[in-house]
Amino acid sequence: MSPGRAGPVGSVPGHRPSVGLSLTGRPASGTRWGEQGSATALALGLLAAAGAGIVAVLLWTSAGLEQSRAAGAAELAALAASDAARGLGTVGEPCAAAAQVAARNGARLLSCRTTSALSAAQGASAIVSVASERAPGWGVFPLPPARAEAVAGAPP
Questions:
Q1: More confident residue, 73 or 25
Q2: Which domain holds residue 93?
Q3: What is the DSSP letter of 23?
Q4: Which of 42, 114, 144, 155 is the most exposed, having the fewest neighbouring CB atoms within 10 Å of its CB?
Q5: Measured between alpha carbons, how far is residue 71 from residues 81, 126, 145 in Å?
Q6: Cα–Cα–Cα angle for 67, 71, 72, nearest 5°?
Q7: What is the pLDDT of residues 93-120, one digit of tens each?
Q8: Is residue 97 part of a domain?
C-alpha cells in the first residue's frame, strides 16, 4: 500500500497477522491449512475409544453375571444330588436329580460324582460341574459359557 491510500477497514499499514486469516480472506503467513479439522478427528477418536471401553465393561459385567448364575446352579445341583444320595427329599438317581435342578436354573450338568458315606454319621456327598446355557456377550461376541463346580454333603 502506498502512503496516503486507505487500505481495508481496520487494517494497519505494514502489519500482517501471523496466525489465521488476513483481512482479505487469504491465509496469513505461518498458517497451516492441514491442521484444520484435526479437533474433529481427535474428538471422533476419543468417542470411539470411549465406546469401546463401555462395550468392554459391559462384556466383563455380562461374564461375571453368567459366572454367578452358573455357580448358583452348581450349588443347587450339588445339594439336590447329595440329598438324593442320602435319601432325603427326592427319590431316585442323585445325578438325575442334579441334572434336573441344573436345567431349571439355566445350566447343563457336565459331570456328577457321589461318594458313599464312610459312616452313618457322615452321609453321602456329591461333586457336580455345570456350564451355563447362555454364553455371555449377548450372542454377538464369541465368549465361552460360564462353568462352575460345587461340592455338597451332610453337615458335620
A1: 73
A2: 38-153
A3: T
A4: 155
A5: 15, 15, 12
A6: 120
A7: 999 999 999 999 999 999 999 887 655 5
A8: yes
Return the CA Rg of the chain.
36
For residues 81 and 96, the answer to whether their CB atoms sit within 8 Å is no
Distance (Å) of CA 52 to CA 56, 57, 138, 155: 6, 9, 16, 48
Phi-psi region of 120 (alpha: psi -120 to 50; beta: other; left: phi over 0): alpha
Amino acid in the structure at residue 53: G
- Is 29 within a domain? no
- pTM of full prediction above 0.85: no
Whether 21 maps to a domain, the answer reads no
**Domains: count for the chain:** 1
Provide the 3-class DSSP secondary structure of residue 27.
Answer: strand
- For residue 26, being part of any structural domain is answered with no
